[in-house]
Specification:
By secondary structure, this protein is an all-alpha fold. Helix content is 57%, strand content 0%. Helix 1 packs across helix 11 and helix 9 packs across helix 11. The protein is elongated and about 60 Å long. The protein binds iron/sulfur cluster (SF4). Iron/sulfur cluster binds next to helix 9 and helix 12.
Length: 221
């Protein structure tokens, strides 16, 4: 990632970047399809190591018959595994989803817990998934750091964290709280459309005037 890995943008540049991202992606939101908080939780669990497009294809069929903890529990682990097989890691995901459904029924009256901490106690629900669910359905201010958010924010200089947790902490410090959830979506959109993993399209990127990666890796070439 550039020679200035330890550097971060100044406050003014960070604000300019946020304004540009908002202009670029005014309607940014999760690209997973869902009709309830429970469906978003399941879709987010399924999206680990899988594309949103693939998850939507699978859940488009799955949720026709199974869209509550109770209906999921009519399935055996291997039966659910077959239905979600194409999302990858289907055995683990199937096991975790059914365990989660049991906990939701037994401890939460079939509803979702509303805090990030409680969500993270559900099997298969890591920090990223908990943040996605809490911010999208409960309006909790949160920044879920997935592979796109991590890469894009560290390239631009909104963060310089060596891991996702540090990056999350830095983004929370550098971005106003009321923009956390939106910024999460802006960075994902930017990562999918322009600042791609292997070949960032810096030549067409409106952020380039501020971007540290651009200054270190493109201008100097
Ligand atoms: S200038 Fe390049 S590295 Fe920087 S944000 Fe844009 S595409 Fe990504």
């Amino acid at each position: 990632m550039g020679k200035r890995k330890k550097m971060m943008l100044a406050k003014k540049d960070i604000n300019d970047v946020l304004v540009l991202l908002k202009e670029l992606y005014p309607d940014a939101k999760t690209e997973l399809n869902y009709n309830s908080s429970f469906e978003l939780l399941i879709s987010t669990v399924l999206s680990a190591q899988c594309t949103d497009k693939r998850v939507n294809k699978v859940t488009g069929e799955l949720y026709k018959d199974y869209n509550t903890p109770e209906t999921f529990l009519t399935l055996r682990e291997d039966e659910l595994g077959e239905l979600i097989r194409s999302c990858g890691f289907y055995r683990t995901k199937s096991k975790n989803i059914l365990k989660t459904c049991r906990i939701l029924i037994e401890e939460y009256d079939s509803q979702l817990p509303t805090t990030i901490e409680e969500l993270m106690k559900l099997p298969g629900v890591g920090r990223k998934t908990a943040n996605v669910v809490a911010s999208n359905v409960f309006g909790v201010d949160a920044i879920a750091v997935d592979t796109h958010v991590f890469r894009v924010s560290n390239r631009i200089g909104l963060a310089n964290g060596k891991d996702v947790l540090l990056t999350e902490e830095q983004l929370m410090k550098n971005i106003p709280k009321n923009l956390w959830s939106e910024a999460h979506h802006w960075l994902i959109y930017h990562g999918r459309r322009i600042c791609k993993a292997r070949k960032p399209q810096c030549e067409v990127c409106p952020i380039s005037i501020h971007c540290l990666y651009y200054k270190d890796n493109v201008i100097k070439e």
